[in-house]
Protein backbone atom coordinates (compact mmCIF):
# COMPACT_ATOMS: atom_id res chain seq x y z
CA UNK A 1 0.00 0.00 0.00
CA UNK A 2 2.80 2.35 1.03
CA UNK A 3 4.56 1.56 -2.24
CA UNK A 4 1.43 2.45 -4.16
CA UNK A 5 0.81 5.70 -2.29
CA UNK A 6 4.34 6.87 -3.01
CA UNK A 7 4.21 5.53 -6.54
CA UNK A 8 6.50 7.72 -8.69
CA UNK A 9 4.16 7.86 -11.70
CA UNK A 10 1.28 8.90 -9.46
CA UNK A 11 3.41 11.55 -7.77
CA UNK A 12 4.68 12.85 -11.08
CA UNK A 13 1.19 12.93 -12.62
CA UNK A 14 -0.25 14.82 -9.66
CA UNK A 15 2.58 17.31 -9.90
CA UNK A 16 2.12 17.80 -13.65
CA UNK A 17 -1.66 18.03 -13.48
CA UNK A 18 -1.96 20.39 -10.58
CA UNK A 19 0.87 22.64 -11.67
CA UNK A 20 -1.04 23.36 -14.81
CA UNK A 21 -3.18 26.48 -14.73
CA UNK A 22 -5.63 24.77 -17.10
CA UNK A 23 -6.67 22.37 -14.33
CA UNK A 24 -7.74 25.24 -12.09
CA UNK A 25 -9.53 26.96 -14.94
CA UNK A 26 -11.38 23.71 -15.68
CA UNK A 27 -12.43 23.42 -12.04
CA UNK A 28 -13.54 27.04 -11.97
CA UNK A 29 -15.72 26.73 -15.07
CA UNK A 30 -17.18 23.42 -13.91
CA UNK A 31 -18.27 24.90 -10.59
CA UNK A 32 -19.51 28.05 -12.28
CA UNK A 33 -21.66 26.03 -14.66
CA UNK A 34 -23.13 24.01 -11.78
CA UNK A 35 -23.73 27.14 -9.68
CA UNK A 36 -25.50 28.90 -12.54
CA UNK A 37 -27.72 25.85 -13.05
CA UNK A 38 -28.63 25.57 -9.36
CA UNK A 39 -29.28 29.25 -8.86
CA UNK A 40 -31.15 29.43 -12.16
CA UNK A 41 -33.31 26.45 -11.22
CA UNK A 42 -34.17 27.86 -7.78
CA UNK A 43 -34.85 31.27 -9.27
CA UNK A 44 -37.14 30.00 -12.05
CA UNK A 45 -39.01 27.59 -9.74
CA UNK A 46 -39.54 30.37 -7.19
CA UNK A 47 -40.87 32.67 -9.90
CA UNK A 48 -43.28 30.12 -11.33
CA UNK A 49 -44.45 28.89 -7.92
CA UNK A 50 -47.74 30.52 -6.92
CA UNK A 51 -46.72 30.64 -3.27
CA UNK A 52 -43.38 32.19 -4.11
CA UNK A 53 -41.24 29.66 -2.19
CA UNK A 54 -39.17 26.57 -2.98
CA UNK A 55 -40.85 23.28 -1.89
CA UNK A 56 -39.09 20.02 -0.83
CA UNK A 57 -40.52 18.26 -3.93
CA UNK A 58 -38.89 20.86 -6.10
CA UNK A 59 -35.67 20.43 -4.17
CA UNK A 60 -35.78 16.69 -4.87
CA UNK A 61 -36.39 17.42 -8.54
CA UNK A 62 -33.41 19.76 -8.55
CA UNK A 63 -31.21 17.10 -6.95
CA UNK A 64 -32.25 14.54 -9.61
CA UNK A 65 -31.67 16.97 -12.41
CA UNK A 66 -28.30 18.02 -11.03
CA UNK A 67 -27.20 14.45 -10.44
CA UNK A 68 -28.07 13.35 -13.97
CA UNK A 69 -26.48 16.46 -15.42
CA UNK A 70 -23.34 15.88 -13.38
CA UNK A 71 -23.25 12.25 -14.55
CA UNK A 72 -23.47 13.37 -18.17
CA UNK A 73 -20.68 15.89 -17.54
CA UNK A 74 -18.57 13.15 -16.00
CA UNK A 75 -19.20 10.83 -18.94
CA UNK A 76 -18.20 13.66 -21.25
CA UNK A 77 -15.01 14.56 -19.39
CA UNK A 78 -13.74 11.07 -18.50
CA UNK A 79 -12.69 10.05 -22.06
CA UNK A 80 -10.93 13.39 -22.49
CA UNK A 81 -8.89 12.82 -19.34
CA UNK A 82 -8.08 9.16 -19.81
CA UNK A 83 -7.89 8.46 -23.55
CA UNK A 84 -4.47 10.05 -23.87
CA UNK A 85 -2.70 8.90 -20.72
CA UNK A 86 -0.48 6.34 -22.44
CA UNK A 87 -0.61 7.48 -26.07
CA UNK A 88 0.39 11.03 -25.15
CA UNK A 89 3.48 9.66 -23.37
CA UNK A 90 4.21 7.71 -26.53
CA UNK A 91 3.76 10.80 -28.72
CA UNK A 92 5.87 12.89 -26.38
CA UNK A 93 8.57 10.19 -26.61
CA UNK A 94 8.69 9.68 -22.86
CA UNK A 95 7.03 6.26 -22.79
CA UNK A 96 10.03 4.23 -23.94
CA UNK A 97 12.19 5.67 -21.19
CA UNK A 98 9.50 4.90 -18.62
CA UNK A 99 9.20 1.35 -19.92
CA UNK A 100 12.91 0.70 -19.45
CA UNK A 101 12.68 1.52 -15.74
CA UNK A 102 12.00 -1.08 -13.07
CA UNK A 103 8.35 -0.05 -12.76
CA UNK A 104 5.83 -2.78 -13.44
CA UNK A 105 3.26 -2.37 -16.20
CA UNK A 106 0.47 -2.70 -13.61
CA UNK A 107 1.93 0.14 -11.55
CA UNK A 108 2.19 2.41 -14.60
CA UNK A 109 -1.34 1.67 -15.88
CA UNK A 110 -3.07 1.96 -12.48
CA UNK A 111 -1.17 5.12 -11.55
CA UNK A 112 -2.11 6.69 -14.85
CA UNK A 113 -5.76 5.79 -14.38
CA UNK A 114 -5.91 6.98 -10.78
CA UNK A 115 -4.10 10.25 -11.47
CA UNK A 116 -6.38 11.12 -14.37
CA UNK A 117 -9.62 10.26 -12.59
CA UNK A 118 -8.47 11.98 -9.42
CA UNK A 119 -9.07 15.25 -11.20
CA UNK A 120 -12.66 14.21 -11.85
CA UNK A 121 -13.01 13.20 -8.22
CA UNK A 122 -11.77 16.65 -7.30
CA UNK A 123 -14.51 18.15 -9.50
CA UNK A 124 -17.14 16.05 -7.76
CA UNK A 125 -15.89 16.75 -4.25
CA UNK A 126 -15.59 20.44 -5.05
CA UNK A 127 -19.19 20.43 -6.22
CA UNK A 128 -20.46 18.95 -2.94
CA UNK A 129 -20.95 22.36 -1.25
CA UNK A 130 -23.18 23.30 -4.18
CA UNK A 131 -25.11 20.08 -3.65
CA UNK A 132 -25.67 21.07 -0.05
CA UNK A 133 -28.10 23.66 -1.42
CA UNK A 134 -30.70 20.91 -1.72
CA UNK A 135 -30.50 20.23 2.02
CA UNK A 136 -31.66 23.77 2.68
CA UNK A 137 -35.00 22.92 1.12
CA UNK A 138 -35.34 19.25 2.21
CA UNK A 139 -36.60 16.31 0.15
CA UNK A 140 -33.19 14.58 -0.01
CA UNK A 141 -31.36 12.45 2.54
CA UNK A 142 -27.57 12.58 3.00
CA UNK A 143 -27.40 8.86 2.18
CA UNK A 144 -28.82 9.58 -1.27
CA UNK A 145 -26.08 12.13 -1.90
CA UNK A 146 -23.44 9.70 -0.65
CA UNK A 147 -24.80 6.87 -2.82
CA UNK A 148 -24.72 9.16 -5.84
CA UNK A 149 -21.08 10.09 -5.17
CA UNK A 150 -20.13 6.40 -4.84
CA UNK A 151 -22.01 5.70 -8.08
CA UNK A 152 -20.09 8.48 -9.82
CA UNK A 153 -16.78 7.12 -8.58
CA UNK A 154 -17.55 3.64 -9.84
CA UNK A 155 -18.72 4.97 -13.21
CA UNK A 156 -15.58 7.12 -13.58
CA UNK A 157 -13.37 4.10 -12.86
CA UNK A 158 -15.21 1.94 -15.36
CA UNK A 159 -15.29 4.47 -18.19
CA UNK A 160 -11.79 5.67 -17.34
CA UNK A 161 -10.46 2.13 -17.73
CA UNK A 162 -11.85 2.10 -21.27
CA UNK A 163 -9.96 5.32 -22.02
CA UNK A 164 -6.73 3.83 -20.65
CA UNK A 165 -7.26 0.67 -22.69
CA UNK A 166 -7.71 2.53 -25.98
CA UNK A 167 -4.82 4.80 -25.11
CA UNK A 168 -2.62 1.73 -24.67
CA UNK A 169 -3.81 -0.07 -27.78
CA UNK A 170 -3.93 2.91 -30.15
CA UNK A 171 -0.75 4.84 -30.92
CA UNK A 172 -2.33 8.21 -31.72
CA UNK A 173 -4.07 10.15 -28.95
CA UNK A 174 -6.60 11.67 -31.33
CA UNK A 175 -7.70 8.25 -32.62
CA UNK A 176 -7.80 6.86 -29.08
CA UNK A 177 -9.88 9.85 -28.00
CA UNK A 178 -12.37 9.43 -30.87
CA UNK A 179 -12.67 5.68 -30.19
CA UNK A 180 -13.24 6.21 -26.45
CA UNK A 181 -15.86 8.89 -27.11
CA UNK A 182 -17.57 6.63 -29.67
CA UNK A 183 -17.74 3.72 -27.20
CA UNK A 184 -18.94 6.04 -24.42
CA UNK A 185 -21.57 7.49 -26.73
CA UNK A 186 -22.77 3.98 -27.54
CA UNK A 187 -22.86 2.98 -23.86
CA UNK A 188 -24.83 6.11 -22.97
CA UNK A 189 -26.81 7.20 -26.03
CA UNK A 190 -26.82 3.94 -27.99
CA UNK A 191 -27.99 1.73 -25.14
CA UNK A 192 -30.65 4.30 -24.16
CA UNK A 193 -31.97 4.30 -27.70
CA UNK A 194 -31.91 0.51 -27.93
CA UNK A 195 -33.61 0.24 -24.53
CA UNK A 196 -36.41 2.48 -25.73
CA UNK A 197 -36.81 0.50 -28.96
CA UNK A 198 -36.77 -2.79 -27.05
CA UNK A 199 -39.31 -1.43 -24.56
CA UNK A 200 -41.60 -0.37 -27.39
CA UNK A 201 -41.45 -3.87 -28.85
CA UNK A 202 -41.93 -5.32 -25.37
CA UNK A 203 -45.00 -3.15 -24.78
CA UNK A 204 -46.42 -4.36 -28.08
CA UNK A 205 -46.00 -8.02 -27.12
CA UNK A 206 -47.39 -7.31 -23.68
CA UNK A 207 -50.62 -5.84 -24.96
CA UNK A 208 -51.02 -8.34 -27.78
CA UNK A 209 -50.79 -11.28 -25.38
CA UNK A 210 -54.07 -13.09 -24.87
CA UNK A 211 -52.84 -15.78 -22.48
CA UNK A 212 -52.70 -15.39 -18.70
CA UNK A 213 -48.94 -14.79 -18.48
CA UNK A 214 -47.74 -12.08 -20.83
CA UNK A 215 -44.59 -12.92 -22.89
CA UNK A 216 -41.41 -11.03 -21.98
CA UNK A 217 -38.41 -9.89 -23.97
CA UNK A 218 -35.10 -9.48 -22.08
CA UNK A 219 -33.29 -7.21 -24.58
CA UNK A 220 -34.36 -3.95 -22.96
CA UNK A 221 -32.92 -5.13 -19.63
CA UNK A 222 -29.51 -5.98 -21.15
CA UNK A 223 -29.34 -2.58 -22.79
CA UNK A 224 -30.59 -0.69 -19.72
CA UNK A 225 -28.15 -2.38 -17.34
CA UNK A 226 -25.25 -0.93 -19.38
CA UNK A 227 -26.68 2.58 -19.34
CA UNK A 228 -25.38 4.70 -16.45
CA UNK A 229 -28.08 7.36 -16.88
CA UNK A 230 -31.01 4.91 -16.81
CA UNK A 231 -29.57 3.13 -13.77
CA UNK A 232 -29.13 6.43 -11.90
CA UNK A 233 -32.52 7.80 -12.96
CA UNK A 234 -34.14 4.53 -11.86
CA UNK A 235 -32.60 4.85 -8.42
CA UNK A 236 -34.42 8.18 -8.03
CA UNK A 237 -37.63 7.09 -9.73
CA UNK A 238 -38.14 3.36 -9.06
CA UNK A 239 -41.07 3.28 -11.52
CA UNK A 240 -38.55 3.34 -14.39
CA UNK A 241 -36.90 0.13 -13.16
CA UNK A 242 -40.27 -1.44 -12.30
CA UNK A 243 -41.44 -0.92 -15.86
CA UNK A 244 -38.26 -2.51 -17.25
CA UNK A 245 -38.59 -5.45 -14.83
CA UNK A 246 -42.24 -5.89 -15.80
CA UNK A 247 -41.63 -5.89 -19.55
CA UNK A 248 -38.41 -7.91 -19.53
CA UNK A 249 -39.37 -10.35 -16.82
CA UNK A 250 -35.92 -10.04 -15.16
CA UNK A 251 -36.16 -9.21 -11.48
CA UNK A 252 -32.48 -8.64 -10.66
CA UNK A 253 -32.07 -4.97 -9.69
CA UNK A 254 -30.57 -2.98 -12.55
CA UNK A 255 -27.82 -1.50 -10.38
CA UNK A 256 -26.61 -4.99 -9.45
CA UNK A 257 -26.28 -5.94 -13.12
CA UNK A 258 -24.68 -2.54 -13.78
CA UNK A 259 -22.05 -3.07 -11.09
CA UNK A 260 -21.32 -6.63 -12.26
CA UNK A 261 -21.06 -5.77 -15.97
CA UNK A 262 -18.91 -2.68 -15.46
CA UNK A 263 -16.68 -4.47 -12.97
CA UNK A 264 -16.03 -7.06 -15.68
CA UNK A 265 -15.36 -4.28 -18.21
CA UNK A 266 -13.05 -2.50 -15.75
CA UNK A 267 -11.04 -5.59 -14.85
CA UNK A 268 -10.84 -6.71 -18.49
CA UNK A 269 -9.75 -3.27 -19.73
CA UNK A 270 -7.09 -2.89 -17.02
CA UNK A 271 -5.68 -6.39 -17.46
CA UNK A 272 -5.52 -5.96 -21.23
CA UNK A 273 -3.83 -2.55 -20.84
CA UNK A 274 -1.24 -4.06 -18.49
CA UNK A 275 -0.59 -6.92 -20.91
CA UNK A 276 -0.29 -4.67 -23.95
CA UNK A 277 1.77 -1.86 -22.44
CA UNK A 278 5.07 -3.63 -22.99
CA UNK A 279 5.88 -5.92 -25.91
CA UNK A 280 5.57 -9.62 -25.33
CA UNK A 281 9.30 -10.33 -25.32
CA UNK A 282 8.76 -14.07 -25.45
CA UNK A 283 6.91 -13.83 -28.74
CA UNK A 284 8.65 -12.07 -31.61
CA UNK B 1 28.69 -7.88 -20.78
CA UNK B 2 26.43 -8.06 -23.82
CA UNK B 3 25.98 -11.11 -26.00
CA UNK B 4 23.83 -11.08 -29.10
CA UNK B 5 23.11 -14.42 -30.75
CA UNK B 6 21.57 -14.72 -34.23
CA UNK B 7 19.34 -11.75 -33.51
CA UNK B 8 16.75 -11.23 -36.22
CA UNK B 9 13.92 -8.73 -36.47
CA UNK B 10 11.48 -8.67 -39.35
CA UNK B 11 8.66 -6.23 -40.01
CA UNK B 12 6.56 -8.08 -42.56
CA UNK B 13 8.85 -8.68 -45.51
CA UNK B 14 11.42 -6.14 -44.36
CA UNK B 15 14.34 -7.54 -42.39
CA UNK B 16 15.68 -4.91 -40.00
CA UNK B 17 18.15 -7.27 -38.31
CA UNK B 18 19.56 -10.32 -40.02
CA UNK B 19 21.15 -12.93 -37.71
CA UNK B 20 23.28 -10.44 -35.83
CA UNK B 21 25.99 -11.90 -33.63
CA UNK B 22 28.06 -9.81 -31.28
CA UNK B 23 29.88 -10.12 -27.98
CA UNK B 24 30.87 -7.09 -25.95
CA UNK B 25 33.03 -7.75 -22.90
CA UNK B 26 32.53 -6.01 -19.55
CA UNK B 27 34.07 -2.53 -19.41
CA UNK B 28 34.26 -2.18 -23.19
CA UNK B 29 33.13 0.94 -25.00
CA UNK B 30 31.65 -0.38 -28.20
CA UNK B 31 30.74 1.92 -31.07
CA UNK B 32 27.93 0.89 -33.34
CA UNK B 33 28.21 2.45 -36.77
CA UNK B 34 25.69 2.34 -39.57
CA UNK B 35 23.53 4.43 -41.79
CA UNK B 36 19.97 5.35 -40.86
CA UNK B 37 17.84 2.21 -41.10
CA UNK B 38 20.85 -0.10 -40.84
CA UNK B 39 19.47 -1.72 -37.68
CA UNK B 40 21.25 0.13 -34.88
CA UNK B 41 18.16 1.44 -33.10
CA UNK B 42 16.38 -1.90 -33.57
CA UNK B 43 19.27 -3.65 -31.83
CA UNK B 44 19.24 -1.08 -29.04
CA UNK B 45 15.46 -1.41 -28.61
CA UNK B 46 15.70 -5.19 -28.30
CA UNK B 47 18.52 -4.91 -25.77
CA UNK B 48 16.41 -2.41 -23.81
CA UNK B 49 13.43 -4.81 -23.77
CA UNK B 50 11.33 -2.41 -25.83
CA UNK B 51 11.07 -4.69 -28.83
CA UNK B 52 10.76 -8.44 -29.14
CA UNK B 53 13.06 -10.14 -31.63
CA UNK B 54 11.62 -12.33 -34.38
CA UNK B 55 14.39 -14.89 -33.85
CA UNK B 56 17.60 -15.25 -31.89
CA UNK B 57 18.20 -13.71 -28.52
CA UNK B 58 20.47 -11.45 -26.50
CA UNK B 59 21.93 -11.42 -23.01
CA UNK B 60 22.81 -8.43 -20.87
CA UNK B 61 25.08 -9.29 -17.95
CA UNK B 62 23.96 -12.88 -18.38
CA UNK B 63 20.23 -12.07 -18.30
CA UNK B 64 18.14 -13.07 -21.27
CA UNK B 65 16.31 -10.05 -22.71
CA UNK B 66 13.27 -12.17 -23.48
CA UNK B 67 12.98 -14.37 -20.42
CA UNK B 68 14.42 -12.03 -17.79
CA UNK B 69 13.35 -8.62 -19.08
CA UNK B 70 12.83 -7.24 -15.56
CA UNK B 71 16.39 -8.08 -14.54
CA UNK B 72 17.74 -6.68 -17.83
CA UNK B 73 16.03 -3.35 -17.12
CA UNK B 74 17.92 -3.09 -13.83
CA UNK B 75 21.22 -3.68 -15.63
CA UNK B 76 20.86 -1.07 -18.33
CA UNK B 77 20.74 2.68 -18.63
CA UNK B 78 19.06 3.49 -21.91
CA UNK B 79 19.19 6.76 -23.78
CA UNK B 80 17.12 6.74 -26.98
CA UNK B 81 18.00 8.75 -30.07
CA UNK B 82 14.82 10.82 -29.72
CA UNK B 83 13.22 11.46 -26.38
CA UNK B 84 10.83 13.90 -24.82
CA UNK B 85 10.63 15.54 -21.44
CA UNK B 86 7.79 16.55 -19.14
CA UNK B 87 7.08 20.23 -19.44
CA UNK B 88 6.08 20.89 -15.83
CA UNK B 89 8.99 19.14 -14.12
CA UNK B 90 12.22 20.67 -12.90
CA UNK B 91 15.57 19.00 -13.63
CA UNK B 92 15.85 17.92 -10.01
CA UNK B 93 12.32 16.48 -9.99
CA UNK B 94 12.90 14.76 -13.30
CA UNK B 95 15.77 12.80 -11.79
CA UNK B 96 13.80 12.15 -8.60
CA UNK B 97 10.97 10.69 -10.67
CA UNK B 98 13.24 8.23 -12.47
CA UNK B 99 15.16 7.46 -9.29
CA UNK B 100 11.89 6.58 -7.58
CA UNK B 101 10.96 4.49 -10.62
CA UNK B 102 13.95 2.29 -9.80
CA UNK B 103 12.91 2.12 -6.16
CA UNK B 104 15.77 4.28 -4.88
CA UNK B 105 14.77 5.70 -1.46
CA UNK B 106 14.38 9.46 -1.13
CA UNK B 107 17.31 9.83 1.28
CA UNK B 108 19.61 8.10 -1.20
CA UNK B 109 18.28 10.15 -4.11
CA UNK B 110 18.94 13.34 -2.18
CA UNK B 111 22.64 12.42 -2.12
CA UNK B 112 22.84 10.90 -5.58
CA UNK B 113 21.11 13.54 -7.69
CA UNK B 114 23.53 16.43 -6.90
CA UNK B 115 26.40 14.11 -7.85
CA UNK B 116 24.78 13.22 -11.14
CA UNK B 117 23.97 16.84 -11.92
CA UNK B 118 27.57 17.65 -11.18
CA UNK B 119 28.78 14.87 -13.48
CA UNK B 120 26.79 16.28 -16.39
CA UNK B 121 27.55 19.91 -15.46
CA UNK B 122 23.96 20.83 -14.73
CA UNK B 123 24.14 21.71 -11.03
CA UNK B 124 23.22 25.32 -11.83
CA UNK B 125 20.07 24.11 -13.61
CA UNK B 126 18.69 21.88 -10.87
CA UNK B 127 15.60 24.05 -10.39
CA UNK B 128 15.05 24.87 -14.06
CA UNK B 129 12.06 23.42 -15.88
CA UNK B 130 13.28 20.61 -18.12
CA UNK B 131 11.49 21.80 -21.24
CA UNK B 132 13.26 25.14 -20.99
CA UNK B 133 16.73 23.57 -21.14
CA UNK B 134 18.75 23.66 -24.34
CA UNK B 135 19.04 20.54 -26.49
CA UNK B 136 22.53 19.81 -25.21
CA UNK B 137 21.43 20.21 -21.59
CA UNK B 138 18.47 17.90 -22.16
CA UNK B 139 20.80 15.31 -23.65
CA UNK B 140 23.07 15.57 -20.63
CA UNK B 141 20.15 15.40 -18.24
CA UNK B 142 18.89 12.31 -20.04
CA UNK B 143 22.34 10.79 -19.66
CA UNK B 144 22.24 11.57 -15.93
CA UNK B 145 18.80 9.96 -15.83
CA UNK B 146 20.14 6.80 -17.45
CA UNK B 147 22.82 6.62 -14.72
CA UNK B 148 20.51 7.11 -11.75
CA UNK B 149 20.38 3.43 -10.77
CA UNK B 150 24.09 2.96 -11.39
CA UNK B 151 23.67 0.51 -14.29
CA UNK B 152 26.58 -1.59 -15.43
CA UNK B 153 25.61 -1.28 -19.07
CA UNK B 154 24.81 1.93 -20.90
CA UNK B 155 22.95 1.82 -24.20
CA UNK B 156 23.29 5.22 -25.82
CA UNK B 157 21.61 5.77 -29.14
CA UNK B 158 23.13 8.80 -30.88
CA UNK B 159 23.82 10.69 -27.65
CA UNK B 160 25.56 13.53 -29.48
CA UNK B 161 23.12 13.95 -32.36
CA UNK B 162 21.89 17.46 -32.97
CA UNK B 163 24.40 19.02 -30.60
CA UNK B 164 26.60 21.97 -31.41
CA UNK B 165 30.39 21.42 -31.31
CA UNK B 166 30.75 22.67 -27.73
CA UNK B 167 27.94 20.46 -26.43
CA UNK B 168 29.39 17.55 -28.38
CA UNK B 169 32.77 18.00 -26.73
CA UNK B 170 31.09 18.18 -23.30
CA UNK B 171 29.21 14.98 -24.02
CA UNK B 172 32.42 13.29 -25.16
CA UNK B 173 34.16 14.29 -21.93
CA UNK B 174 31.32 12.84 -19.85
CA UNK B 175 31.46 9.58 -21.79
CA UNK B 176 35.21 9.41 -21.18
CA UNK B 177 34.53 9.73 -17.46
CA UNK B 178 31.99 6.93 -17.64
CA UNK B 179 34.50 4.80 -19.49
CA UNK B 180 36.95 5.39 -16.66
CA UNK B 181 34.26 4.32 -14.20
CA UNK B 182 34.32 0.92 -15.91
CA UNK B 183 30.87 0.98 -17.47
CA UNK B 184 30.15 -1.21 -20.47
CA UNK B 185 28.95 1.28 -23.06
CA UNK B 186 27.21 0.52 -26.31
CA UNK B 187 27.04 3.70 -28.30
CA UNK B 188 25.93 4.62 -31.77
CA UNK B 189 26.91 7.79 -33.53
CA UNK B 190 27.24 9.38 -36.91
CA UNK B 191 30.23 11.35 -35.75
CA UNK B 192 32.68 8.63 -36.63
CA UNK B 193 36.01 10.21 -35.69
CA UNK B 194 34.64 10.77 -32.18
CA UNK B 195 33.63 7.14 -31.96
CA UNK B 196 37.10 6.06 -33.04
CA UNK B 197 38.56 8.19 -30.29
CA UNK B 198 36.24 6.99 -27.55
CA UNK B 199 35.60 3.37 -28.42
CA UNK B 200 37.69 0.33 -27.69
CA UNK B 201 35.95 -1.54 -30.45
CA UNK B 202 33.56 -0.72 -33.22
CA UNK B 203 31.01 -2.67 -35.21
CA UNK B 204 29.76 -1.64 -38.62
CA UNK B 205 26.20 -2.64 -39.37
CA UNK B 206 24.71 -2.50 -42.83
CA UNK B 207 21.24 -3.68 -43.84
CA UNK B 208 20.81 -5.50 -40.54
CA UNK B 209 24.09 -7.38 -40.78
CA UNK B 210 27.31 -6.83 -38.90
CA UNK B 211 29.77 -6.36 -41.75
CA UNK B 212 32.86 -5.63 -39.69
CA UNK B 213 33.81 -5.74 -36.05
CA UNK B 214 36.95 -5.03 -34.06
CA UNK B 215 39.36 -2.22 -33.26
CA UNK B 216 39.77 0.48 -35.90
CA UNK B 217 43.10 -1.07 -36.96
CA UNK B 218 41.60 -4.56 -37.07
CA UNK B 219 38.76 -3.41 -39.26
CA UNK B 220 41.22 -1.74 -41.55
CA UNK B 221 42.93 -5.09 -41.92
CA UNK B 222 39.61 -6.69 -42.72
CA UNK B 223 39.33 -4.48 -45.79
CA UNK B 224 40.55 -7.29 -48.02
CA UNK B 225 44.13 -6.67 -46.96
CA UNK B 226 44.26 -3.31 -48.75
CA UNK B 227 46.54 -0.53 -47.60
CA UNK B 228 46.56 3.06 -48.68
CA UNK B 229 50.06 4.23 -49.53
CA UNK B 230 51.11 7.84 -49.92
CA UNK B 231 54.25 8.66 -51.88
CA UNK B 232 55.72 12.18 -51.71
CA UNK B 233 57.71 12.91 -54.82
CA UNK B 234 60.81 15.00 -55.31
CA UNK B 235 61.07 14.62 -59.10
CA UNK B 236 58.76 14.39 -62.11
CA UNK B 237 55.30 13.08 -61.38
CA UNK B 238 54.67 11.62 -64.87
CA UNK B 239 57.36 8.93 -64.51
CA UNK B 240 56.18 8.01 -61.05
CA UNK B 241 52.53 7.77 -62.11
CA UNK B 242 53.48 5.61 -65.08
CA UNK B 243 55.63 3.35 -62.90
CA UNK B 244 53.04 2.76 -60.16
CA UNK B 245 50.18 2.33 -62.62
CA UNK B 246 52.06 -0.52 -64.25
CA UNK B 247 52.33 -2.35 -60.93
CA UNK B 248 49.68 -5.13 -60.72
CA UNK B 249 49.12 -4.77 -56.95
CA UNK B 250 48.42 -1.03 -57.20
CA UNK B 251 44.89 0.33 -57.72
CA UNK B 252 42.91 3.57 -57.54
CA UNK B 253 45.93 5.81 -58.00
CA UNK B 254 45.45 9.53 -57.48
CA UNK B 255 47.90 12.37 -57.97
CA UNK B 256 47.65 15.54 -55.89
CA UNK B 257 49.70 18.28 -57.60
CA UNK B 258 49.46 20.73 -54.64
CA UNK B 259 51.32 18.42 -52.32
CA UNK B 260 53.12 16.64 -55.16
CA UNK B 261 52.00 13.28 -53.78
CA UNK B 262 50.62 10.08 -55.18
CA UNK B 263 48.14 8.02 -53.22
CA UNK B 264 47.06 4.48 -54.13
CA UNK B 265 45.71 1.31 -52.59
CA UNK B 266 48.11 -1.61 -52.38
CA UNK B 267 46.88 -5.20 -52.10
CA UNK B 268 50.20 -6.92 -51.47
CA UNK B 269 51.94 -8.24 -48.38
CA UNK B 270 54.50 -6.33 -46.31
CA UNK B 271 57.33 -8.03 -48.27
CA UNK B 272 55.72 -7.05 -51.57
CA UNK B 273 55.48 -3.49 -50.28
CA UNK B 274 59.22 -3.52 -49.59
CA UNK B 275 59.83 -4.85 -53.11
CA UNK B 276 57.66 -2.10 -54.59
CA UNK B 277 59.69 0.62 -52.89
CA UNK B 278 62.96 -1.04 -53.88
CA UNK B 279 61.82 -1.23 -57.55
CA UNK B 280 60.70 2.40 -57.53
CA UNK B 281 64.12 3.57 -56.32
CA UNK B 282 65.86 1.26 -58.78
CA UNK B 283 63.68 2.72 -61.53
CA UNK B 284 65.16 6.10 -60.64
CA UNK B 285 62.18 7.78 -59.03
CA UNK B 286 63.02 10.59 -56.64
CA UNK B 287 60.96 9.81 -53.55
CA UNK B 288 60.88 11.99 -50.46
CA UNK B 289 58.66 9.66 -48.44
CA UNK B 290 56.80 6.38 -48.87
CA UNK B 291 54.30 5.62 -46.12
CA UNK B 292 51.10 3.84 -45.26
CA UNK B 293 48.35 6.41 -44.84
CA UNK B 294 46.27 6.42 -41.66
CA UNK B 295 42.80 5.35 -42.67
CA UNK B 296 40.16 6.95 -40.49
CA UNK B 297 36.84 5.47 -39.46
CA UNK B 298 34.89 7.41 -42.03
CA UNK B 299 37.01 6.00 -44.84
CA UNK B 300 36.50 2.51 -43.48
CA UNK B 301 32.80 3.05 -43.12
CA UNK B 302 32.45 4.42 -46.65
CA UNK B 303 34.45 1.54 -48.03
CA UNK B 304 32.52 -1.15 -46.19
CA UNK B 305 29.11 0.31 -46.92
CA UNK B 306 30.14 0.75 -50.58
CA UNK B 307 30.38 4.49 -50.39
CA UNK B 308 26.75 5.16 -49.54
CA UNK B 309 26.65 8.67 -48.17
CA UNK B 310 26.27 9.06 -44.45
CA UNK B 311 22.94 10.50 -43.48
UniProtKB/TrEMBL annotation, chain A:
Protein origin, superkingdom: Bacteria
Segments traversing the membrane: 21-44, 64-86, 117-137, 149-169, 181-201, 255-274
The UniProt record lists the keyword Transmembrane helix: yes
Alphabetical keyword list: Membrane, Transmembrane, Transmembrane helix
Entry annotated with the keyword Nucleotidyltransferase: no
The name this protein goes by in its record: ABC-type transport system involved in multi-copper enzyme maturation permease subunit
PANTHER family: ABC TRANSPORTER PERMEASE (PTHR43471), HYPOTHETICAL MEMBRANE PROTEIN, CONSERVED (PTHR43471:SF12)
TrEMBL record, chain B:
SUPFAM superfamilies: P-loop containing nucleoside triphosphate hydrolases
Gene Ontology MF, one: ATP binding
Keyword Lyase: no
Gene3D superfamilies: P-loop containing nucleotide triphosphate hydrolases (3.40.50.300)
InterPro entries named in the record: AAA+_ATPase, ABC_transporter-like_ATP-bd, DrrA1/2-like_C, P-loop_NTPase
PROSITE patterns linked: ABC_TRANSPORTER_2
SMART domains reported for this sequence: AAA (SM00382)
Keyword Heme belongs to the record: no
CDD domains named in the record: ABC_DR_subfamily_A
Residue ranges of every copy of the ABC transporter domain listed in the record: 2-232
UniProtKB keywords: ATP-binding, Nucleotide-binding, Transport
Family named by the database record: Belongs to the ABC transporter superfamily.
Entry protein name: ABC-2 type transport system ATP-binding protein
Organism, scientific name: Cytobacillus purgationiresistens
Amino acid sequence: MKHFVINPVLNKEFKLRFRSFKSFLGLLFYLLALAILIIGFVFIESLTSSQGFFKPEQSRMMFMMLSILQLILILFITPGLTAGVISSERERQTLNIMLTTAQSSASIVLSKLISSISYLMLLIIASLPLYSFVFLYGGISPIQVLTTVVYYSFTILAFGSLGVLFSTLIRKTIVSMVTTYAVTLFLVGGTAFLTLISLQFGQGYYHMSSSGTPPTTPYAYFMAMLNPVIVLAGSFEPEIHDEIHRITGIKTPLWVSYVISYTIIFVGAILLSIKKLRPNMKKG
Amino acid sequence: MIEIIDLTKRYGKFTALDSLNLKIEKGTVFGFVGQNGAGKSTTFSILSTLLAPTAGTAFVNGYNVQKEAKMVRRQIGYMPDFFGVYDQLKANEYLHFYGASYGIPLSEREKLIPQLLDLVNLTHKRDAYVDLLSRGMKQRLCLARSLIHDPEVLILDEPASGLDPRARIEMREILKELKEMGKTILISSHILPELAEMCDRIGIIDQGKLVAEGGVAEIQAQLKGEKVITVMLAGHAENAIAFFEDEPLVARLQYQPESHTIEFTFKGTDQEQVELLRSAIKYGLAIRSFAEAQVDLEDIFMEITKGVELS
